[in-house]
Amino acid sequence: xxxxxxxxxxxxxxxxxxxxxxxxxxxxxxxxxxxxxxxxxxxxxxxxxxxxxxxxxxxxxxxxxxxxxxxxxxxxxxxxxxxxxxxxxxxxxxxxxxxxxxxxxxxxxxxxxxxxxxxxxxxxxxxxxxxxxxxxxxxxxxxxxxxxxxxxxxxxxxxxxxxxxxxxxxxxxxxxxxxxxxxxxxxxxxxxxxxxxxxxxxxxxxxxxxxxxxxxxxxxxxxxxxxxxxxxxxxxxxxxxxxxxxxxxxxxxxxxxxxxxxxxxxxxxxxxxxxxxxxxxxxxxxxxxxxxxxxxxxxxxxxxxxxxxxxxxxxxxxxxxxxxxxxxx
Amino acid sequence: xxxxxxxxxxxxxxxxxxxxxxxxxxxxxxxxxxxxxxxxxxxxxxxxxxxxxxxxxxxxxxxxxxxxxxxxxxxxxxxxxxxxxxxxxxxxxxxxxxxxxxxxxxxxxxxxxxxxxxxxxxxxxxxxxxxxxxxxxxxxxxxxxxxxxxxxxxxxxxxxxxxxxxxxxxxxxxxxxxxxxxxxxxxxxxxxxxxxxxxxxxxxxxxxxxxxxxxxxxxxxxxxxxxxxxxxxxxxxxxxxx
Amino acid sequence: xxxxxxxxxxxxxxxxxxxxxxxxxxxxxxxxxxxxxxxxxxxxxxxxxxxxxxxxxxxxxxxxxxxxxxxxxxxxxxxxxxxxxxxxxxxxxxxxxxxxxxxxxxxxxxxxxxxxxxxxxxxxxxxxxxxxxxxxxxxxxxxxxxxxxxxxxxxxxxxxxxxxxxxxxxxxxxxxxxxxxxxxxxxxxxxxxxxxxxxxxxxxxxxxxxxxxxxxxxxxxxxxxxxxxxxxxxxxxxxxxxx
Lengths: 329, 242, 243
Hints:
The complex is a heterotrimer. By secondary structure, chain A is α/β, with parallel strands linked by helices. Helix content of chain A is about 35%, strand content about 20%. The radius of gyration of chain A is 22 Å and the shape is globular. Chain A starts with 14 loop residues before the first strand and ends with a helix. Chain B has a single domain (about 40-240), classed as MetI-like fold. Chain B is elongated. The two termini of chain C are about 20 Å apart. Chain C has one domain: MetI-like (MetI-like fold), CATH 1.10.3720.10. Chain C is mainly α. Chain C has ten helices and no strands. In chain C, helix 1 packs across helix 9, helix 2 packs antiparallel against helix 7 (about 135-165) and helix 6 runs antiparallel to helix 7. The interface between B and C is large, with 57 and 52 residues.
């Protein structure tokens, strides 16, 4: 793959939840309560909320691992009920926390499962497997190895590759990085975002970690207990204007700072460089506003010089300016 | 020539013709007797024994497998099936063989029915345990990817249940080899036949030859299954190397 | 000699009647069988438990333990008894030797695995506290190893009691005498004696289980004896059906 920078925008699908309800017998509250939301094609929609809020249930309703009681879910306008469940699932990538790689199959065979089910010919399968392994950052040599020989991070990469194998328009991911150590988790998050740039699918991603949600989501859906949707908007909007007390508490009292982490120095308007900046700390265009603020505060500086890739000053940022940006938007 | 056994009383020498000193004295083991009687006594007994065992284990496996597949989905079936096979298991085989004779006659069928009955318990339990040992997340991933129930059974659960299944097969094979020797009691030819005949006359060589063959057969079959298991599980080898 | 008696639902009732009518005989034979089994188990336990426990404590000889288990489990019992007779002649002692040979493998293997696989953290803590090796073994490893150890003894007990039935062929006495003598006792006798063997095996199993419960230290969750029987290797596996 790679260097031609192929972008697959054709294979994403819009997902629509319409008044979806799921009740379990014997439990007073519904697991999912009249859920309605639209996930635009190609977006990453993160479902986030405390344990038991119904987010995993909501996700599993999409590929009918759990059947809904009321309402409907459509993928590109087609109701999920109009297809045979097994066929539906072959068109949806599914990644879970414990991964569930087949221990008795090699990495290549694991990845090839769905394509083979769909009847692809051998050559096409082989090419796709190699393409995906490279895409998820694995070595060609890993293709013949078995899951037991891989680390947790490598296994989850295989899990991702397996879910992407048949090029499904939709991906469901249930806390996929939850079982990994923080360093591996961060790396995989970054790689997943990079991957999404290339293989642009509609993703429904479940997590209980608000920071992960903010980092990954184009939109985040915050769930309250009882499967009730509390707010559904872009991360910046949720942080700036939480819908209620619950959301405000869930995103954390430092939501202002979290918002700063969403923007980079290269994206905002900087003040012109002036002579007062001698001795001030320096940061590149890719630095987030949050990190820039942190740098200024820890050095006790009022200002910070922003430099571009060549090391030349591109502008100046002041603490006051940061505050104004936050308040203004 | 009159020869006396250690227990007193004359001994009938089973093979006519050369009666070497070894045989006349009823030494522990006389190789020449084995050579002379291999084709007429020992080999047919061995062949019959292998056939009895193979048929019993094959049928027993088929039944136990079907029962385990049913029980894995419908948990309530496990207890009754388990009880029936456990019950069959406690009946002393010598008794069961005799009791079946009026029902199915002095035939191979009688023996096979009993032998199959005895394999059911081990095979059923082990196959079911094998299915149960498949990790839940593997099954969930399989369903989520869109594999059908039947595919999941044959391509995922069965390979992963192999260690437990082979363990059960080993016990079943070895037990059946042992029980098949007793089938001679109701006249069914097996390695037990020369043993019973020789026990009557207390002829040591024949006992040891037949007994030794039975032991060798059981150990050989066991070893073969171990090798087969290793060959069928390349991923286990990889795990051990990891 | 096999008579072609008929068998039907009535046979079961006849068997029960036989048991009722021949209590004395059956009791006598049962005692014979129990004596043979008990003696064999006694000798086998005396040999296998100390050896297995010691090897497990030293974490040595796993190949030996596994090898013995595999070979011993595979031995056809009639063959062992018959060969034993060839070597040592007919009689109580000789059948006993054969039964000991058959009983040692499951006991040895389970004893070894039970001690070998005791939670290493507990053992390390004990040593760290300054316990002597002997105390580590007796006060920590052995009590923790008890369930699995007893699972092996239970398996062997049922196996021996059942196999002792064949002892009749070798002059060892017991209920097998009735089972092989259809001529004298007919089907009700054969079935009746068979029922007694099954009952005997069950009682022996319960007795060993009761003994284990008595000896089990308080606070230990009971290891499921059945689960032990299922484990692929190297634990004793199923006892052979009543022979």
